[in-house]
Design goal:
Elements lengths: L1 H16 L5 E9 L6 H12 L8 E7 L1 E4 L6 E4 L21 E8 L1
Parallel strand pairs: 1-2
Antiparallel strand pairs: 1-5, 3-4
Helix pairs in contact: 1-2
The structure holds zinc ion (ZN).
Zinc ion (ZN) binds next to loops.
Length: 109
């Protein structure tokens, strides 16, 4: 909830600086290893946006996935939030990415 709140403060501040009447769309990126689920972010956002400049804004969430190249079998694999083993051969993998959690852009009117 605190993450949704700080996102809301960020976009509201940004909209105010641009003399916006309202925010129509908010684009965010959420990685699968960011510790935040897209569903809970959306839920919190919808609860917070009432009676704000973003009251009618739509939230678009782009979900990114951590990836890795297995050092043992060289497979390129997607890595889930709590996975540290190659799904192909079981070897250890070092995941890259998936940690994004940010507001990419907003659209204002
Ligand atoms: Zn492997």
């Amino acid at each position: 909830m605190s993450i949704a709140l700080s996102m809301m403060e960020l976009v509201s501040e940004n909209a105010r600086m641009n003399n916006a009447k309202k925010i129509s769309r908010i684009n965010v990126v959420v990685g699968n290893r960011s510790g935040v689920s897209a569903d809970s972010l959306r839920f919190c956002f919808d609860a917070l946006k009432e009676d704000t400049i973003a009251g009618r804004a739509e939230l678009f969430i782009e979900e990114t996935t951590a990836t890795a190249r297995c050092a043992a079998c060289e497979a390129d694999v997607d890595v889930g939030p709590y996975e540290f083993a190659c799904p192909v051969c079981g070897g250890p993998v070092a995941a890259k990415g998936g940690e994004e959690l940010s507001v990419r852009s907003i659209e204002i009117e």
